[in-house]
């Protein structure tokens, strides 16, 4: 059975506090922290003045290096890369081949680019599990990595989403079952495209003849920035995430009382709190959103990596990863933790 | 040999303007197929519209409902919107609520990756019936036809069902034997630079429209050399490993941005040299993710006999190269 053998993460060193944001737009630490739980985030971007100068794939290299070092594995042993992002270094071919080059992997290996927004990492885990369980691959790297800061509006018009999103990368290495690894028992994902227009970025896109007009860039048109129906997304996430946890537990013959911890997508502290209340006080629900904000596809693997390093999960623990994101999509993964 | 996975119902979008059916032989020897009149979808149709059309046609001809599909894999590099991807929109238009929609962006090789992933899902029992929709409106990268590449970049969509070997099928179907897909190098030889997330202060700068960063760039020589050096070796090894002993491949379906030179550079093994060729570039122009599945759809209209072996070859941005071996059911 496919198992997670190593985890790693990287966040840019540049800390952007809520007070920093209030210098660029009409907002405040109180407003942001009360509504989202976010106190600061990590950005590659330093306001409008400078740029840390790191690519998406370079962040991934740092996270991969941490993960592989923890198990004394060489990059050359990786036999597939699954790269989930909505913010690649180039439109095409994306960031996966760039990571392969940065890791000096000379052999021709599969590089799979996944575009499923906040649920991208979970889709990557779903693919990795199938490839390993089918015997096609033995060392599959699943990457969730985002540079959201370069796609955000620093003016007041954009504050509804700009305060939420952030940069970072998390990775897991999926291998066939070993004693020391965490068994991926199941991954189950769902979507409902009727709500696709409630969260996303419209342009550039190919739904009309011109993918983007120059005026939209120079004029600061909101179509190139994220839009969100916050109330609807909050409502749906609060309903779908607990349901996804309970469904995957039931499907695999477990109940909530068997669960040691939940590692949720970090979208909003109020959603995480509602998830915790729904599942019961005896279940730990991991949160790092106060420090990192919403890092989209990177959020779950960053949280998992931090949880492992903080001794939050223990051998034999049953843990559940749970996601919700634009599309809308949601789902969960059930993992039996190893040593 | 265990052959549990079946590809069936191959279909392609048909209502396209300006396309013309060129004889593939006409293409041989042409390095960039400049004479092709690419297929162009009317501007009032979005990628998800033509994907919907072909999926509905395919499901109808295959006699199944979308409710009997338990996963969508969408292959595209030209989605309607930046976020969310085409998969979500297509599922909504198909009336499919609840099922997952995976979106892959690996250019020409995406459908081969998709079939490989789908076959793994089927064989491990994770999914029972998977819809693969491959859609690209490559013409929309260009605001005019002045760019040399724009003269053969076209639009297309195609779909196929991947399921278990045991299901009853109307029309032609192909048993999945094996596939291989990998990034083989030369990433700078083909791709689109902008938008790029690590560009400051904006992912797209006004000057990107002037310097071509928003449009595909192709270095055909470098692309072709990588095919000669890396892909040819993979193909030779793949064929020697998976081709049933003593048999030849009867059909080759291929797609890449370098037209006829792709097969020249691959130096086809002897067992493929007498195969009949189907390259979508001759019909629709260069259509990236849609090319290989459109080719399978055209193959379904040929005199394919049960037991015929089919080799699907594609290479695109990355360079991601894919090869898949099928047998006509």
Structure description:
The complex is a heterodimer of chains A (339) and B (329). Helix content of chain A is 32%, strand content 23%. Chain A has eleven helices and 16 strands. A ten-stranded mixed beta sheet of chain A has the order 7-6-8-9-1-10-16-15-13-14, with helices on both faces. Chain A has a two-stranded antiparallel sheet with strand order 2-3. A two-stranded antiparallel sheet of chain A has the order 4-5. The model of chain A has no long low-confidence stretch (mean pLDDT 94). Chain B is α/β, with parallel strands linked by helices and 329 residues long. Chain B has two domains: 5-172, Thiolase/Chalcone synthase (Peroxisomal Thiolase, Chain A, domain 1, 3-Layer(aba) Sandwich), CATH 3.40.47.10; 175-328, Peroxisomal Thiolase, Chain A, domain 1 (3-Layer(aba) Sandwich). Helices cover 27% and strands 24% of the residues of chain B. Chain B has nine helices and twelve strands. Chain B has a ten-stranded mixed beta sheet, with helices on both faces. Chain B is globular and about 55 Å long. At the A-B interface, strand 5, helix 4, strand 7, helix 5 and strand 10 of A face helix 3, strand 3, helix 4, strand 6 and strand 7 of B.
Supply database-style keywords:
heterodimer; A: 339 residues; alpha/beta; 11 helices; B: 329 residues; Peroxisomal Thiolase, Chain A, domain 1; 10-stranded mixed β-sheet; two-stranded antiparallel ribbon; 27% helix; 24% strand
Secondary-structure topology with pairs:
The complex is a heterodimer of chains A (339) and B (329).
Chain A: E1 3-10, E2 15-17, H1 18-24, H2 29-36, E3 40-42, E4 45-46, E5 50-51, H3 56-69, E6 80-84, H4 96-102, E7 111-114, H5 120-133, E8 140-146, H6 159-162, E9 168-175, E10 182-191, E11 199-200, H7 214-218, E12 227-228, H8 230-251, E13 261-264, H9 269-279, E14 284-285, H10 289-292, H11 299-309, E15 318-325, E16 329-336
Parallel strand pairs in A: 6-7, 6-8, 13-14, 13-15
Antiparallel strand pairs in A: 1-9, 1-10, 2-3, 4-5, 8-9, 10-16, 11-12, 15-16
Chain B: E1 5-12, H1 24-27, H2 47-62, E2 71-75, H3 86-94, E3 100-104, H4 110-123, E4 129-137, E5 155-164, E6 173-183, E7 190-191, H5 208-211, E8 217-218, H6 220-242, E9 251-255, H7 261-266, E10 276-279, H8 281-284, H9 291-300, E11 309-316, E12 320-328
């Amino acid at each position: 059975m496919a198992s997670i053998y190593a985890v790693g993460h990287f966040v840019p060193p540049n800390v952007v506090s809520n007070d920093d944001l209030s210098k660029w737009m009409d907002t405040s630490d109180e407003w942001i922290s009360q509504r989202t739980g976010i106190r600061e985030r990590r950005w590659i971007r330093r306001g409008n003045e400078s740029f840390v100068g790191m690519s998406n794939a370079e962040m991934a290299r740092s996270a991969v290096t941490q993960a592989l070092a923890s198990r004394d594995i060489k990059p050359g042993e990786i036999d597939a890369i699954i790269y989930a992002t909505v913010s690649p270094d180039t439109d095409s071919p994306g960031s996966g081949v760039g990571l392969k080059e940065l890791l000096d992997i000379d052999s021709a290996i599969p590089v799979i680019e996944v575009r499923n927004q906040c649920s991208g990492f979970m889709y990557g885990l779903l693919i990795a599990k199938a490839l390993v369980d089918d015997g096609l691959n033995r060392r599959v790297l699943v990457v969730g990595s985002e540079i959201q800061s370069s796609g955000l509006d620093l003016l007041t018009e954009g504050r509804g989403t700009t305060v939420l999103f952030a940069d970072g990368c998390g990775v897991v290495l999926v291998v066939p079952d070993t004693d020391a690894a965490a068994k991926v028992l199941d991954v189950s994902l769902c979507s409902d495209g009727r709500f696709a227009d409630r969260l996303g970025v419209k342009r550039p896109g190919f739904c009309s003849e011109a993918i983007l007009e120059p005026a939209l860039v120079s004029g600061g048109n909101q179509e190139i920035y994220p839009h969100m129906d916050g109330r609807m997304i909050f409502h749906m996430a609060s309903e779908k995430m607990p349901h996804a946890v309970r469904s995957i537990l039931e499907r695999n013959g477990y109940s909530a009382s068997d669960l040691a911890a939940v590692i949720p997508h970090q979208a909003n502290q109020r959603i995480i709190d509602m998830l915790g209340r729904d599942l019961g006080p005896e279940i730990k629900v991991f949160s790092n959103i106060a420090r990192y904000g919403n890092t989209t596809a990177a959020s779950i693997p960053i949280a998992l990596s931090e949880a492992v390093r903080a001794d939050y999960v223990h051998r034999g623990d049953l843990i559940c990863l749970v996601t919700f994101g634009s599309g809308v999509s949601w789902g969960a993964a059930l993992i039996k933790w190893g040593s | 040999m265990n052959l549990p996975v079946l590809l069936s119902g191959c279909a392609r979008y048909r209502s396209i303007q300006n396309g013309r059916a060129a004889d593939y032989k006409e293409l041989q020897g042409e390095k960039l197929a400049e004479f092709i009149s690419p297929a162009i979808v009317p501007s009032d149709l979005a990628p998800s519209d033509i994907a919907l059309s072909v999926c509905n046609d395919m499901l109808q001809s295959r006699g199944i409902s979308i409710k009997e599909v338990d996963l969508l894999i969408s292959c595209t590099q030209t989605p309607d919107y930046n976020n969310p991807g085409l998969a979500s929109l297509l599922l909504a238009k198909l009336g499919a609520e609840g099922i997952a929609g995976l979106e892959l962006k690996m250019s020409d090789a995406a459908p081969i990756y998709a079939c490989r992933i789908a076959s793994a899902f089927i064989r491990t029992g994770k999914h029972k019936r998977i819809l693969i929709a491959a859609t690209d409106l490559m013409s929309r990268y260009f605001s005019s036809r002045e760019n040399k590449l724009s003269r053969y970049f076209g639009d297309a969509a195609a779909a196929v069902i991947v399921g278990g070997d045991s299901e009853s099928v109307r029309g032609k179907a192909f048993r999945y034997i094996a596939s291989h897909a990998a990034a083989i190098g030369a990433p700078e030889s083909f791709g689109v630079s902008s938008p790029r997330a690590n560009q400051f202060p904006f992912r797209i700068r006004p000057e990107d429209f002037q310097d071509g960063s928003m449009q595909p760039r192709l270095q055909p020589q470098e692309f072709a050399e990588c095919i000669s050096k890396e892909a040819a070796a993979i193909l030779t090894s793949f064929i020697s490993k998976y081709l049933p002993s003593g048999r030849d491949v009867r059909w080759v379906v291929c797609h890449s941005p370098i037209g006829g030179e792709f097969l020249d550079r691959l130096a086809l093994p002897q067992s493929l040299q007498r195969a009949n060729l189907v390259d979508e570039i001759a019909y629709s122009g260069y259509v990236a993710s849609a090319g290989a599945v459109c080719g399978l759809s055209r193959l379904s209209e040929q005199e394919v006999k049960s037991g015929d072996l089919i080799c699907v070859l594609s290479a695109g941005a990355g360079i991601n190269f894919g090869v898949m071996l099928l047998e006509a059911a």
